[in-house]
TrEMBL record:
<feature type="active site">
    <location>
        <position position="145"/>
    </location>
</feature>
<keyword id="KW-1133">Transmembrane helix</keyword>
<dbReference type="GO" id="GO:0004190">
    <property type="term" value="F:aspartic-type endopeptidase activity"/>
</dbReference>
<keyword id="KW-0378">Hydrolase</keyword>
<feature type="transmembrane region" description="Helical">
    <location>
        <begin position="103"/>
        <end position="120"/>
    </location>
</feature>
<comment type="pathway">
    <text>Protein modification; lipoprotein biosynthesis (signal peptide cleavage).</text>
</comment>
<feature type="active site">
    <location>
        <position position="127"/>
    </location>
</feature>
<dbReference type="GO" id="GO:0006508">
    <property type="term" value="P:proteolysis"/>
</dbReference>
<keyword id="KW-0645">Protease</keyword>
<comment type="similarity">
    <text>Belongs to the peptidase A8 family.</text>
</comment>
<feature type="transmembrane region" description="Helical">
    <location>
        <begin position="74"/>
        <end position="91"/>
    </location>
</feature>
<keyword id="KW-0812">Transmembrane</keyword>
<comment type="function">
    <text>This protein specifically catalyzes the removal of signal peptides from prolipoproteins.</text>
</comment>
<keyword id="KW-1003">Cell membrane</keyword>
<feature type="transmembrane region" description="Helical">
    <location>
        <begin position="140"/>
        <end position="162"/>
    </location>
</feature>
<keyword id="KW-0064">Aspartyl protease</keyword>
<keyword id="KW-0472">Membrane</keyword>
Length: 176
């Protein structure tokens, strides 16, 4: 009789756990940023380059549609929810041996759901990481944005450099 015990680290649940860790870290750091910086001064981490501050983003990435009148809250929330469902299914269907692609997807899923939490609960996303140089300022972002960006970069790297290897592995059933 086969052993049907549940092994968290040999199932798609490990990727959902990673996504959950991203969500919890994101929410925790946002709460910290609100407590520390909402009414106080920014904290210089690397003077002239990096600081922690507080900002509210009512739009999407880089405050896109931030002044659209409120409908964007629900639109971006719906997009994040639908995308998250697609990623959950995608993760479930990946071969257990894969590591890079599901890690990337889990980071993206955690980031999307972290920002979705803010959008649904507050109507905006809390940001606190500010990168700047002189008069140039990159839009303020958060841990969820970092997870999404790293996950997306990992998917691009997978597509550009490892896609052929994955296709060969899938066709033969064994690594080449």
């Amino acid at each position: 009789m086969p052993n049907k015990s549940f092994d968290l680290f040999a199932s798609p649940w490990r990727w959902y756990l990673l996504a959950l860790m991203v969500i919890l870290l994101d929410i925790d750091t946002k709460v910290w940023a609100v407590e520390e910086f909402m009414h106080g001064p920014a904290l210089q981490i690397i003077p002239g380059f990096l600081q922690f501050t507080y900002a509210e983003n009512y739009g999407a990435a880089f405050s896109f549609l931030a002044d659209a009148g409120g409908w964007q809250r629900w639109f971006f929330g719906a997009v994040a929810l639908v995308f998250s469902i697609v990623v959950v299914v995608w993760l479930k269907r990946l071969p257990a041996a894969k590591r890079w692609e599901p890690t990337a997807l889990a980071l993206i899923l955690g980031g999307a759901l972290g920002n979705l939490w803010d959008r649904v609960m507050l109507g905006y996303v809390r940001d606190f990481i500010s990168v700047y140089y002189g008069n140039w300022h990159f839009p303020v972002f958060n841990v969820a944005d970092v997870a999404i960006s790293v996950g997306a970069a990992m998917l691009v790297i997978e597509l550009l450099f490892f896609k052929d290897k994955d296709e060969q592995t899938d066709k033969s059933g064994a690594e080449v």
